Amino acid sequence: MGKIRKAVIPAAGLGTRLLPATKSVPKEMMPIVDKPAIQLIVEECVEAGIELVVLITGRYKGSISDHFDVSYEVEDVLERKAKGELLEKVSHLSSMVDVVSIRQHRPLGLGHAVGCARPIVGDDEPFAVLLPDDLILGERSATHELVEVHQETGTGVLALVEVPPEKVNLYGMIAGERMDNRRVRCTDMVEKPAVGTAPSNMGIAGRYVLPGSVFSYIEETPRGVGGEIQLTDALLRVMREEGMHGKLLEGMRYDTGDAGGLVRANIAYALERPELADDLRAFMRRFV
Ligand code: UTP
Description:
Spore Coat Polysaccharide Biosynthesis Protein SpsA, Chain A; 11 helices; two-stranded antiparallel sheet; 13 strands; alpha/beta; binds uridine 5'-triphosphate; 34% helix
């Protein structure tokens, strides 16, 4: 099975759950320790061997594209002050991967956002999708895990997490047969089922490997409430017509799209940093 070369990152949502911060700062630019969340997502792409990242952005999201551009002023100052290590930190990523951005002119839903990447990704090759709200901290990146399953099965692959029974109404939930401990053959999908009606405890997290054919299914998806085009209908068609697998992620998932998740992610990522971990642990002991 071929390599996955392209990734789409939909980042045009309004981020209302993080208001007022997101009134003027895109939620994807919220810092996780000292990096904007979107940088961790692009680093995940690089780790999984992605060569081209397509960012889907909207109004007020210009700072995301700026972040992946060369910053002459900053780099010049760091160079003159011989701050090599910091210079490496700000310029490293733009040399590892090409990042292009496309505007989604109106926030018409996740399916529509992914569909905006069609002219760049094309219909002939599978590609990865990463929702930047979901940070997954593990030994290997989540996208890497999905690419591996895609290479074994040749199908689309969904990232899965185990969802507690009282939270199934917040997820797209799947039905499927376990192939082994973590790999699943998906047989059905229900978007946000009522508590007590989910077909399993496996919910979709924000990482996907999808075949190029998904674009034509998105195009055919009727608009729902508020004119939005959801991704789920198109995923169901991929599942029924071409088969789909899932992978229960090895890493731990943080939803940085709400305040609690953002704080938890900051703590978890800070504890991974040897120069911060001891102080932070001592600080937290005063509260718990
Ligand atoms: P969410 O459902 O989390 O919506 O979108 P949101 O607007 O970002 O956040 P809240 O709920 O108002 O706080 C899931 C993902 O889909 C993207 C978002 O950027 C996010 O990564 N998205 C959603 C788009 O790119 N365009 C859309 O029209 C909708």
